[in-house]
Structure formats: structure tokens, C-alpha cells
Amino acid sequence: MAIRIVFGKVTMMVGVVSVAAICFAALMSTDGQHQPAEPLVVDGQDQLGASFAQTSRLMSKGSFSESMSPKDRSRLWGGALRVALSVALMFVALISYLGAPDMSVPLWVEVAPHSRRLSAQLQTPQQHVSENVVDNRDAFSSEEMNRKLAEDEAAVKSRFAEAQRHVERWQVEEAQKDLQEASERSLTACDHAVSQSQVVRTRLLRIEALTRLGQFLEANGRPTDAIGSLRRAVETSAGLAPIGAASDTVAVVARAEVALARALCTVGGEHGKAFDEAGRYLGLALHSVAHARMGQAAREFAPLAAEINAEIAACSYAQGKLATAAEEANAAMSIATVDVPDEQKRSGLVKRITKIQGSVKHDQGLFKDALRLYDESLAASGSLPEDTSASADNEVERLSTLQDIALAMAQDGRIDEGLERLDKVEQKLQAMNDKLLAKSGRQAKKFLAKKDIIDAKLWEEMARISTTRAELLLSRASILDKKLPIKARKAATEAVSMLREGDHKKALANALNTLGNVLSSIGRVTEAEPVYKEALELLSDVFGSDSPVVASLYDNLGMIADSRGDHKEALRLFQFALGIQSRTLGISNPDTAGSLTLIAANLEKHSKLPHAQVVVAATKALESAIKAYPAGHATRVEAEERLTNLMKADLTALLV
Asked: Cα–Cα distances in Å, from 165 out to 79, 172, 306, 342?
């Protein structure tokens, strides 16, 4: 459209200039003298009128007659040619200008060279959504289209409100239907938009509808389904939010980008490429929101800015990047506590950010700090309004935190207390599932039957109960009862069986890893090895082969090789894991310390290397353990004892 507008204007200018040039040439034509053949004004007419008048006079003398002089004949044809050319140019210019399409769409939607969106994704008004829309505008009057548009917008907002009421009542299936209807009706609204403001407004409504549906699906354990809806939302936003766009436009587009990134981080896949894509969307959202906060909308965009930083922290944590996760979580907490004035929004943000901080401390082996942060997250949940805290997805998240507390207690040496807490969480999960079934008009026939589960995230948490119980029983067995691994094996096997139903790759890989640990502990290494390899394959697909999450499986496979006497292969696997961890995590990470400890132990027992090189390996392991763990942690104590024994051996050798 913009090209045709420019062409029309340029052609108009060429026509005007051409008329002026032709008239000037006519005035300057003489019989060999530098005097104009005709006056500048003929009978009060301008130059174009003079050409018409001159031609008329010549033809009145008897045009095309044999008696016409050569001079008159020349003037006749010259004038006619000039008039015809001028009229043709003016006609082309007029058609080009009047034929330009509707200017109701902003110019940046058409060309947008300064937009941060890809120009290839920009769409014309009839292409303002990714779906194929039939343009029926000619079939209705403007008033009829406006009426239909108003009805569409009201219907979409009504579905939004009804979905929220169903969410608060735990009516999950009804809420999903409402959001799907809102999404479909928003597409119709886009088709009825005519003016510039209507096109932009309906596109934003379409984005919001798709985003809400995607967020709902992700929150209820269906992130793969959510990605499709959220991709359409982001595609619909193409060209809508360049730098300097209206604040409501920036906010709607950024929320869609953040929601898509969250779903991608939850699912993973494509050998880690999903995390890269999520990072790009988070970067786009962060950039546009940061620019918006530079103006007068700083506080208005503070909640969204904190949410973006929290999402970056959560995605980094999922990939095992603990340092980045901690940094981004701290940044999010700073924005939430200082710049977010609304208490409800602030409480919701603090709850999530504190949970992420607790998870980071947990993986760092700082169990007491993790327990404190988990408790703070639960306290923040309690400060939310009752209708929000009672929603199904928030309740699942709360019960997930209680599971984390049970595991941290056990790892802090309070195993029995952790198991007791875990039993209570299991009871609450079952009660929640019964409530959801009752709200949907159904009743559970058997606990843990897949067909009796409405919320996929709840199903995953139920399976996680079995995984966590297996880990706690395995820890307790090494201290008290050698028969407990049998119970742990039963729990881990149950978790694996549950998670094979549906799309739960990360949770399934975690359960398989736990089952492998249990099998190894009871000496069934030949059974454990294929279990570890399956977990490795799943995690490689989710995170990529160079992920620190994958590295721990190489350590486990190395221990299997060591147990069957293949110490050289074990050392190779330990070193391979260490290479990934060194590149991605650094020496101060617990996983890195674990691999260095395994390498030092292998060299101490089986290596034919000089004693000094074994001491160097043990020293590196202790250095990493000191940076990664607090004093008294088992891994740190083991590293300290190993180096002490090696140094004693050196001293004994010297004395001898």
C-alpha cells in the first residue's frame, strides 16, 4: 500500500512538471528568433489553456486542409501532442493517488523498518491473524460491522469473566471451554474490524484470548498444548509493538511472549533448542518492557518486569544454571518489593520468586536456607485473597512446595520427619483430586487411575510423591534398615509407570534416575544401566547433550561401570560429566564437586598414576566442595578425609 501511495504522489509531481515544461517550450518556440510565438496568457487562461486555445484557432482555419501552411500544420500537431501528453500524465497521477488503498492501518504495520519484529511477519489488515479469514466487509454496511464488532468484543470479555469464575470454583473443564470460546469469538471480531483503531484493538483482544488459553493449559499441566495457542498469539502480535507503541499494546504483546517462553521452558525438547527459543522471547519482552519503564510508565510496568526476571530465573534453574537463576531471582525480588505498589500483585510475585530462591539453595546443598525460603513462599501464599489461593493451579503449586520441604528435611538429616510430611502431602493431593472430580460431576473409582485425573499437573505431583518417597526410603536404608530399598523400588517403579502416561519427559527421567539409584543400591547393576540410559536419552532430548542436567546421568553410568570392574570406562564417564559441568556451571557448583570427588576416588583406588597426581585431583575435589557446600556436608567431609589420608600417606612414605 505504501508503495502505491508514493508512486501516485511521484507521478502527480511528474505530470505537473511536465505540463509546465511543455508550456514553457511552446512559449519559447519561434521562427528563428528568441521571441515567444504566443503570449504567456491567452484570453485570461493559464499555459495549459493557451495550448488548447492555440490548437482551436489553428483548426478553425481549416485544419487538415491542403491550404494550411507548413508553419500552421506544425503548430497544430505540436499543440495537440502537448495537450494529449499532459492529460495522460495527469490522469495516471490521479488514478494512482485515488486508487491507493485504505490508510486506516498505521504505516509501521506496512513497512516498519524500525520495528524489532521481523518485517517478513508483518501483515496487511486482511491478514491481521494467522488464520485464513474471509473478508466479508463488502457484504455489510459500516453500521452493521460496528454492531457485530461490539457484540464480539462483549462476548469475549464475558467468556473471560465466566472462565475466571469457573477457575475459582475448581471447575477446570468448564473454564477451558470458556477460554476456547473466547479465542474463537476473538477471531470473528478481527474479521469485523474496519478502521485503524478497530484493527489494532481486535488484534490485541485476539492476542489476549490466545494468551489466556495458553496460560490456563500450561498451569493445568498441558504445556505442549499451550505452546500452539501461545505461538498463534505471538504471531498475531507481529508488527504491533515497536519501540514507542502504546503501553497497553506493549504489555499485551510482552505477556504473550513471556507465556510462550514459560511453556517452552516447561516442555523443553529439540535437544535444548526450546530453551534457546524461550530465551529469545524473554529477551524481546525484557527489552520492550525496559524501554517502557524509562518513561512515565515505570511503576505501571514494574509487575511485568518482575515477572520477566522471575521467568528467566525459573528457566535458568530448570537448565541447572544455578548462578544465573539466583541473580535473576534477586533482580525480580528487588523490583517486586520496591516498585510494585499493589499488595496482591506483590504477594503473588514474592511467593513465586521466593520459591525459586529456595529451589536454588536446595540444589546448592544449603538445606536450612532452602527450608526457610520455602516457608516464606508458603507464608506469601497465605497472604493472597482466598479466591486466588484456592484456585486449583495455586493449590497444586503449594503442595509441590510442601514436597520440596519434605525432601529438604530428609536431606538435612530429618528423614523420618520428611517421610511424615510426605504422607500428609499425599493425603492432600488425593483430597484435591476428589474435589476436582466432584466439581466436574465425576467420582474417583480407584486412587491413581489416569482416567480419574482432570489436572495433568496434579497427576505429575502424585507421581512425584512416589519418586520422593523412594529417595527418602533409600537414604534411610543406608542408615537404619537394609530392607527399605525394596520399598523404595516399589515406589520408584510406581512413579515410572504413572509418568509413562502422558507427556511428562522431565518428571519421567527424574523417576527413572531414582529407580536406577535404587537398583544400584541393591546390587542390580545390570538392571540399573538401561534405566539410566533411558533417562539419559530423555534428558538429552529435553535439555541437549551439553546440559549440566544430563551430566549427572554420566556420573551414574560411570558408577555402574566402576561397580562391574571397568574402572577405565568409569573414569572416562566421570571426566565427560566434569567437562560439561566445567563449561556450564563452574567449579563452585555441587554437581561439579560431585564429579571431581568421583574422579578423585577412582584415581585413589585404581589409578596407576603417580601419587602426586592423585593428590592434585583430591585437592581440586576439596576446593570445589568447599565452594559448593557448607561445613559438615557429607561430600565436603568425604573430600577432606580423602585428601588428609593421601597427605598422611605422603608423610609416611617420607618417614620410611
From this structure: 80, 10, 27, 22
**Are the CB atoms for 189 and 136 separated by under 8 Å?**
no
Instruction: Please state the three-class secondary structure of 482-502 as a single string.
Output: CCHHHHHHHHHHHHHHHHCCC
Domains (range + CATH), the chain: 2-98 (no CATH), 143-405 (1.25.40.10), 406-535 (1.25.40), 546-656 (1.25.40.10)
pLDDT for the residue 195 = 87
pLDDT of residue 60: 42
* Residue 42: strand pairing partners: 45
**Which pLDDT belongs to residue 45?**
41
User: pLDDT (tens digit, 9 = 90+) per residue, 207-235?
Assistant: 999 999 999 999 988 999 999 999 999 99
Return d(Cα 190, Cα 206) in angstroms, integer: 7
All three cell numbers of 132: 485464513
8 A C-beta contact, residue 546 and residue 562:
no
DSSP state for residue 583 in the 8-state scheme: H
Instruction: Look at residue 393 in the predicted model and tell me its pLDDT.
Output: 80
Are 127 and 217 in contact by the 8 Å Cβ rule? The answer is no
What is the distance between the alpha carbons of residues 351 and 379, in angstroms, rounded to a whole number? 8
C-alpha grid cell for residue 60? 478553425
Q: Which amino acid is at 618?
A: A
pLDDT of amino acid 124: 38
Please give the pLDDT value at position 118: 30
The C-alpha atoms of residue 481 and residue 39 are separated, in whole angstroms, by: 120
pTM of the model: 0.74
Cell of 374: 520455602
Place of cell 473443564: 173
Instruction: Map grid coordinates 477446570 to a residue.
Output: 172
Contacts of 374 (CB under 8 A, 6+ apart): 355, 358, 401, 404, 405, 408
- Of the candidates 41, 28, 26, which has an alpha carbon nearest to the alpha carbon of residue 74? 26
Here the cell at position 316 is: 535458568
pLDDT reported for residue 57: 43
Residues with pLDDT less than 50, the chain: 1-7, 24, 26-67, 96-137, 139-140, 383-389, 447-448, 656
How far is the C-alpha of 121 from the C-alpha of 529, rounded, in Å? Answer: 48
Phi-psi region of 413 (alpha: psi -120 to 50; beta: other; left: phi over 0): left
Residue 444, SS3?
A: coil
